[in-house]
Amino acid sequence: MNLRVLLFVCLTSFLQAAPDAGSTEAVTLLESKPSSWPAFATLTKDFAAEYNGQEVVVKAGTRAVLLRIEQGRALLDTGRKGSHFIPIEFTDLLEETARPKVGDDAKQAANFVVMFANKIVLPGSRESIAYEDLQGTRAFALIYGDGSTTSNAQLARMDQLRSDWSAKLPGVVFVYLHTTESPELFTGAVDSLKHLPFFPFQFARGYKKALKYSVGSPTGCVLIGSDGQTLLNPFEIMSDDDIDSLMEQMQKALNRVISAPSPTEPAKK
Prior knowledge:
This protein is of the alpha+beta class and about 270 residues long. About 35% of the residues lie in helices and about 20% in strands. Strands 1-4-5-6 form a four-stranded antiparallel beta sheet. Strands 8-7-9-10 form a four-stranded mixed beta sheet, sandwiched between helices.
């Protein structure tokens, strides 16, 4: 990011009004209830950001895909202007989640079940996994890899373990997400898969950019809930020992969700 763009984004962020205490309480509650997250959000204010080294302004009225909410911000995919963490106060999310919904307006399935339906491919047959087959999914384990020799060797071991992992973690869908811009490296990685589903090249490129997870090693894993919440932050895989411990880390992450107390509504004043 050049200095001019950096100053533009920082100045705009500084001028953004801080939420009041009541709004902060409502945002915290919303963040803790992923099942209430809508699939889309509409900006209610202009938002300045940086995208591909250029300053952009996402205009009020823009309808964007909600990817997740964390630390009081919504990660929104705006399309041609990229995905950005935007303060919830710049969106209609609080109003939208509070609005009663019935019939066709009600949420029919978890956000990422709908998003990933027909975009995950089975190895061998190369058939996509349909919406109906993702019903009941608790989480998606995204296996990041760059197609290097090291990464492919680790991927091959995880491919062998996939059936065992699925038995121990029912409701978790494991998916390979390629991280480079090279179709050749992508093909080399997925052609050897026997058990592990994967995102086709064009979808992998889009999801890597939009989801904004930073995996610092050639291979890694992120566990996300079916509505998009992060259950396990990027877990870097450097050795076979890391692969062995990944299962334990995923189990712990899922157990934390199960054992977490139900969020309560904010106290009325």
